[in-house]
């Protein structure tokens, strides 16, 4: 449960970072895309952990 809570916090922080990068550097900038990929990774990890905790 603790890991899920920490992941949620990381997801929120990464999402805010990505949005700020998109506005500052553009939606297709290298930094924005990298941040988006990192967010995808965190979301996939959260989903995987959530599914394992239900099973």
Helix content: over 70%
Q: Secondary-structure element sequence?
A: HH
Q: Return the CATH class.
A: Few Secondary Structures
The 3D shape can be described as elongated
Characterization of the model:
The chain has helices spanning 2-25, 30-54. It has 2 helices and no strands. α1 runs antiparallel to α2. The protein has a single domain (2-54), classed as MYOD Basic-Helix-Loop-Helix Domain, subunit B, CATH 4.10.280. The protein is elongated. The mean pLDDT is 95. With 55 residues, the protein is an all-alpha fold. The longest helix has 25 residues, at 30-54.
Short description:
By secondary structure, this protein is an all-alpha fold. The protein contains two helices and no strands.
Itemize the secondary structure elements and their pairings:
Blueprint: H1 2-25, H2 30-54
Helix pairs in contact: 1-2
Question: What are the defining features of this structure?
Answer:
single chain, 55 residues, mainly alpha, MYOD Basic-Helix-Loop-Helix Domain, subunit B, 2 helices
